[in-house]
């Protein structure tokens, strides 16, 4: 079974179509207003109407007000929520939707404890820890910190790009990989060639 690929930070229809045509399994939409990849609920709703079948839409939130998450869900029918801040298991569960919990990994992170704490998550999305920046940093972390026996699907992210994704898949054997800045032409704008190379190399590994 080849690894799944999520392309995060979609802001434009043409990028959505390019990623889907290249074989993306999931697309991410960032509802965090400090991100250069931020989309409004209305813009996301318009993008979601362009989604082909069998490609999942993922809404990314960072310590969002629950009322804001619900307001987004009213207009944008997201398949999966991605909580990328310091949300608790209760925060993540309160919307009654399937979710991923992002963990920003540093040498002190106890990933087995995280997996136990977030046992209701559909997967743990592992990203680099960069102080003061919740994600989308383009930074890698030490993949040897990931235990082999994690009981949840691992979505590997953080500093992946077309040049290192094959090594990442061969080394970590994650359920999926996720990329944002590594396939961009500029912040918030995807590079269709990088997206296609990333997906092809991930799935061939
Ligand atoms: O993409 C963003 O702008 C973003 C903002 C806030 C939190 C998370 C964000 N993106 C997620 O960060 C990781 C790694 O991104 P990168 O490939 O290193 O740029 C990824 O999971 C994105 O979904």
Tell me the layout of helices and strands.
Elements (H helix, E strand, L loop, with lengths): L3 E4 L5 H9 L4 E5 L10 H8 L7 E6 L4 H10 L4 E4 L5 H5 L5 E7 L5 H7 L5 E6 L25 E3 L8 H8 L3 E4 L4 E3 L2 E2 L1 H13 L1
Parallel strand pairs: 1-2, 1-8, 2-3, 3-4, 4-5, 5-6, 6-7, 7-8
Antiparallel strand pairs: 9-10
The structure holds ligand LGQLAAA5.
The site of the ligand O=C(O)c1ccccc1N[C@@H]1O[C@H](COP(=O)(O)O)[C@@H](O)[C@H]1O has 26 residues, from strand 2, strand 6 and strand 8.
Short description:
The protein is of the alpha/beta class and 205 residues long.
Question: What report would you give on this structure?
Answer:
With 205 residues, this protein is α/β, with parallel strands linked by helices. The protein has a single domain (4-204), classed as Aldolase class I (TIM Barrel, Alpha-Beta Barrel). Helices cover 29% and strands 21% of the residues. The protein contains seven helices and ten strands. It has helices at 13-21, 41-48, 66-75, 89-93, 111-117, 165-172, 192-204, and strands at residues 4-7, 26-30, 56-61, 80-83, 99-105, 123-128, 154-156, 176-179, 184-186, 189-190. The protein is globular, with a radius of gyration of 16 Å. The structure holds the ligand O=C(O)c1ccccc1N[C@@H]1O[C@H](COP(=O)(O)O)[C@@H](O)[C@H]1O. The ligand O=C(O)c1ccccc1N[C@@H]1O[C@H](COP(=O)(O)O)[C@@H](O)[C@H]1O binds at residues 8-9, 28, 30, 32, 35, 37, 60, 62, 84, 125, 127, 134-138, 157-160, 178-182. Residues 5-200 form the N-(5'phosphoribosyl) anthranilate isomerase (PRAI) domain. GO terms for molecular function: phosphoribosylanthranilate isomerase activity.
């Amino acid at each position: 079974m080849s690894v799944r690929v999520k392309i995060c930070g979609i802001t434009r229809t043409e990028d959505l179509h390019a990623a889907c045509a290249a074989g993306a399994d999931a697309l991410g939409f960032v509802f965090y207003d400090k991100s250069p990849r931020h989309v409004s609920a209305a813009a996301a709703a318009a993008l979601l109407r362009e989604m082909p079948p069998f490609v999942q839409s993922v809404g990314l939130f960072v310590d969002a007000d629950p009322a804001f998450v619900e307001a987004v869900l009213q207009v944008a029918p997201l398949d999966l929520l991605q909580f990328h801040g310091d949300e608790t298991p209760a925060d993540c569960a309160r919307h009654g939707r399937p979710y991923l919990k992002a963990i920003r990994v540093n040498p002190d992170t106890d990933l087995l404890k995280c997996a136990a704490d977030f046992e209701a998550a559909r997967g743990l999305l592992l990203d680099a820890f960069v102080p003061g920046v919740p994600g989308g940093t383009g930074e890698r972390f030490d993949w040897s910190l990931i235990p082999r026996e994690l009981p949840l699907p691992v979505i590997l992210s953080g500093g992946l790009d077309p040049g290192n994704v094959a090594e990442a898949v061969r080394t970590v054997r994650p359920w999926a990989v996720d990329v944002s800045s590594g396939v961009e032409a500029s912040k918030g704008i995807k590079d269709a060639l990088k997206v296609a190379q990333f997906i092809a190399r991930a799935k061939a590994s």
